[in-house]
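name: query_chain
kind: protein
chains: 1
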Amino acid sequence: MEAELTALAASGATTFVGLMATEAWSQVRGRLARFLARGEDSEAVDAELEESREELVAARRSGDEDSAEDIAAAWRVRLRRALRDNPEAAGELRELLDELAPHQAPGPTVTVNNSTNGGTYYGQVIQGHDISGLTFHSGGTAAPRREPGTA
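structure:
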């Protein structure tokens, strides 16, 4: 059961930290603060969440991924403790994560940069991620290949 709660806490922290830098955060923050406060002062937790969001945005702007990961780790620990102290809250956290799933980004953004210098190309060149079902028709035949240094 401990491993399941740890995995749930990790999933929750990843989801919440991922949403901190999105427009959906204003909707998520209050729900998460109420979940974490468990009947206590949710305004204090809300302030902590907002402070984490500001730190996360600043870290990502400056390219400081270590700090961004530290923020995620802190919330992972916080969620794990909340679940350990109140295992019945696991169902509530699962429901919250299911409800927030549509607000999450579809996946990581991948940047591809290509640079081609010199040479003659007689067909398409493709570089990408998850490409399938493509058909290309070339409009002619390739010229004979010349070895370097020949005219």
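note: The first helix runs from residue 2 to 20.
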